[in-house]
Specification:
Blueprint lengths: L25 H30 L6 E4 L6 E4 L2 H16 L4 E6 L7 H7 L5 E6 L10 H10 L7 E6 L9 H17 L6 E3 L5
Parallel strand pairs: 2-3, 2-4, 4-5, 5-6
Antiparallel strand pairs: 1-3
Helix pairs in contact: 2-5
């Protein structure tokens, strides 16, 4: 008799895949998921501490780079943050106080940490490698704007959407963004709150 090595349905080990949650309990389950995400904000730092100790790492909810005295800053995820660091080092040599915030945890959104990290910056560009088609900017921009809404000390935020379809973002693109921020800092005027990087018009 043929026996499947990894059966999807095994009566000795019952599991559920993609269950249908009907209206009688759907709302309650979604509420439980929301509570679990809130609780995760307390649990994740403890897990990170244990992970860092075990493996000799220094992971955190976010990474700050030359942000403590930065007048202008970029918020960027993943490898884009590495490119931004190179540009920031060049700008610092030219006397421009530029910095970077790299969120590592996106869900649940670490609102308090991000708000504190950006509290000294005057103008911040949020880089999104996604378009939400809401006419209100990309997903990271919207979460960040929402997180900062109640803060008394908050920077002016502008959004830059880049890299759709895998298009590269180059150091010169990031330098141009920082120059835009410098101009906004000096004039107090924003030409557009939602901008597109390296796109053919």
């Amino acid at each position: 008799e043929y026996e499947i090595e990894h059966p999807l349905l095994d009566v000795d080990k019952p599991v559920t895949y993609g269950p249908l949650d009907l209206q009688d309990f759907y709302f309650e389950h979604k509420r439980q998921q929301s509570e679990a995400m809130k609780n995760a904000l307390d649990v994740i730092p403890e897990v990170l501490k244990e992970f860092n100790k075990t493996f000799g790492k220094k992971h955190d909810l976010l990474e700050e780079y030359k942000l403590e005295d930065a007048d202008i800053a970029i918020v960027a995820l993943s490898s884009t943050a590495g490119t931004a660091k190179v540009v920031i080092d060049q700008l610092r040599k030219d006397g421009i106080k530029a910095g970077l915030l790299k969120p590592i945890l996106f869900r649940p959104f670490p609102k308090e940490r991000i708000t504190k990290s950006l509290s000294n910056s005057k103008v911040v560009a949020v880089l999104d490698r996604a378009e939400s088609f809401s006419t209100m900017g990309g997903p990271l921009f919207n979460d960040l704007r929402s997180a900062l809404y109640d803060s008394k000390k908050k920077p002016l935020l502008v959004n830059y959407i880049y890299g759709l379809g895998g298009r590269d973002i180059l150091p010169e693109h990031i330098k141009k963004i920082f120059m835009d921020l410098e101009d906004i800092k000096k004039t107090g005027k924003v030409k557009s709150f939602i901008n597109y990087v390296s796109v053919r018009e």
